[in-house]
Amino acid sequence: MAIAIHEPGMGASEAWGGQAAAFGSNQTVVDKVTPDMMHLIDPHWYQFPPMNPMWHGLLGFTIGVLGFISITGNGMVVYIFTSTKSLKTPSNLLVVNLAFSDFLMMLCMAPPMIINCYNETWVFGPFACELYACAGSLFGSVSIWTMTMIAFDRYNVIVKGIAAKPMTINGALLRIFGIWAFSLAWTIAPIFGWNRYVPEGNMTACGTDYLSKSWLSRSYILVYSIFVYYLPLLLIIYSYFFIVQAVAAHEKAMREQAKKMNVASLRSSEAANTSAECKLAKVALMTISLWFMAWTPYLVINYTGVFETAPISPLATIWGSVFAKANAVYNPIVYGISHPKYRAALYQKFPALACQPSAEESGSVASGATTACEEKPSA
Would you say the pTM of this structure is higher than 0.85? Predict the structure, then answer.
């Protein structure tokens, strides 16, 4: 009975008829879907022929590579930041939370997707489909709001300076708890009827139902995008606008002071600290920019489905999966390259990786990075 309810409508059947003639086959992308999953398949997908197995193979291979890099890289970030005394600061707890979220995302999502790509369809049943989609929503939301808190911390240190109230360990833990609770609330909403989790067009991954014609279902995607995409984006832009403004004003003041003293530049410890703050701000901004590059394809796919602005093919849904999961790879690379104290600790614990910073970095930037950006408010 459930299968009959979700059979393709007249429009989908006619559309498929044209494609079947073109491909000389009456097969569809839904043919390999297991019977227990059929009630979750939207009629929209019946009009598309099966994807070329090459795409499934490429997707599985790509996710496997991204999963290995992410699990290894983020695992090392968590280990090094939690086992190195000089890196155990309130601000770095947010970095650890970000790496931990990315680590769990790929640990939970990469293996199932590789297996599904091999089978060219979702093989773990409806409940696992919900859990998979929940994991993607939860860890994605945790990542962006953690980055938002990192931006606020940069704003607090760089813009407010000495007047800033320092973030404590308890304050950082409270922020982290709030991030997870907020994200979990959005994640479980579809389980209780506000939208639902269904297989995506490529049938190897699961996500929110953006093809439903119900406005109750559509409203979830629209409201979710406001609180987990647009709002953090605006807050981050606000933070970095004033960060750049403050750094530019400080640089101008330093140049004017140097001109009055008839010297080329001022090399005080304050200038060194400001330079370190600016570099860490750039690192955080780069990480955030990469996050939005990663999740924007999913937003576009969801909005395309909600507003029916263009047809969505199964192949198009692959890019959402790839770009979103690639986000979990960016962060350890960015921090590994740009955080001198992290690189020094990485070299100490894993000498074979040859990430030792130069003497100049170790003496100035490394000490400035943590001291200026995380301990300065207490000065």
Answer: no
